[in-house]
Amino acid sequence: MKEALEERFRSAIAGLLEERGDSGAPPAFAIEASRSPQYGDFACNAALVLGKRLGQPPRAIAERLAAEVRNASDWVERVEIAGPGFVNVWLRDSRWQDLLGTILEEGQRYGTSKVGARKRVQVEFVSANPTGPLTLGHGRQGVLGDCIARLLDATGHDVTREYYFNDGGRQMRVLGESVRARYLEQLGRAAAPPTQAFAAADSAWPVEIDGLPVVFPRDGYQGGYISEIADSLRREHGDGLADEPGDGVFRKTAEERIFSEIRKTLTELGIEFDVYSNETSLYEDGRIDATLRDLRVKGLVYEKDGAVWLRATDLGLDRDRVLVRKTGEPTYLLPDIAYHRQKFERGFDTVIDVQGADHIDQFPFVVAAVGALGVEADRVELVMHQFVTLTEAGRQVKQSTRRATYVTVDELISRVGVDVFRFFMVQRRAEGHLDFDLDLATETDWKKNPAYYIQYAHARTCGIERKALEQGVSLPDANSVGASALVLREEIEILKKVAEFPEVLARAGAAREPHHVSYYLRDLAGLWNPYLQDRTHHRIVSNEAELSRARLGLARAVRTVLANGLALLGVTAPEQM
RNA sequence: GCGCCGGUAGCUCAGCUGGAUAGAGCACCAGGCUUCGAACCUGGGGGUCGGGGGUUCGAAUCCCUCCCGGCGUGCCA
What we know:
RNA-binding; 577 residues; 20 helices; five-stranded parallel β-sheet
């Protein structure tokens, strides 16, 4: 729709430039869906952009352009000049009506495109280490990453969803120690540290209480799930594990149990990964050593204070970073570099890291390092998201990882359901904070819950189709729909809206911003629900057979777009509610 | 201190590759259903787009500066 118009303007502009002997590149201009019907279907700002270059008043230029566009009278209805020099274009209704057949024909495919050119894209997200249940931040990241992946899929990319976790480091060891401590406490061989000892990092930490040693690590995991794992180990093995190290069976069991819980949560959320990868495998196949060696060859590595450093300042960063601690154990940075390098060895054209704001500092170091090792750094993208706060009864609910008083994804899902959870999580753009309004999400008067507005528009449309079938009216197909009966202004407006869908997906995918999809769907439902509401003017199934067919076709088109859009958000499109 | 992200209606937020009277949901006010198309609809009030400067024919959008909030600035991840 827009492309043809754009072409028209382009050639008109070329003509004007040529006239003046201007052989420079044509300027960038915009054709946008007009914000108001009084400005037509599309508005073009080319005349304003050209004003200075041609040394003529924009409105005069607009006249010339308008004349040119008017020539396409088989599909252009009217062209006007308005304001400082906008060219507003009205298309003939048939231009919009013709779209209906296309949508009915394409069905589930409508909206998808090939702009991705089958480029291989990896989306890495969640990547939470299995030290505890997924928190709201992970939940947001999961939904965000998943929606980006769905969007890239729909726009013709070859997508791999990947979850990477650090299973080799200190964190997992502390996890094992935490479980071991709880195990020994349950056997009466150790004392639990008092809760207030956790309050601050510098508060007193007892070595023993009542003659029993305190073995719980200072930075251990305090959640109740740790005790549960310890409890089940105790039931299976009695006191037989008392002399086991924390890094062995305790760690392994905890990792397995927690990871399996995480996967369960993700599955429940409708998130499936193609690849799970971990740090250990990078050690095993020698990639960690190789990466360090190659960095060293590049002269980017030096020793200081017994540790091995990355000379990041040579790569334009503000400080150097430790790659290998003086204990001989790498920091997370080195495996991260090795991992990102491996991504490109695996043949991805583009790699997208979805990360929380707390990891943002890490990213430039990884990009700089893999860049130094020969990877074109602009092929690594970062999608950063801020954290999630929870508001209930008008107040913010305090979240503390340290005290394990955070709300988990599981808990929230059980309160609001997967659809509402996903919808709320993907409704905001990633860079901003996300306030999850529990009052709205669990609104007792759930008519107010914005997540349902779009679903309801879909459900009631299905209801109309059911009713038509009950009455013996068959649903039209692309050939029989007869869209020219759709002549009302509001019907054309709806057609224009569904026409935007492919563009919305392409733009949202390119920008890695799925929230545009939810706003678009809200807009569409915001045209459709009122249309359906007015049964006197817009009765879908009436005794006028031709009009009924056309309107049922319109209903099917809207239903298709709503369903396709909701699918991209991972939200169900119910046939009844 | 420095870096990144935010500051738009009472609240939560879209709009930010510059465009014409700044939008939505919730809340509030006034209306519409014997739920077979009301989980909806109609109308209304509500704004120094954090402040100030600049670039531009035109700025919520770009630049500078200041203020406020979050995150980071680890030999934690």
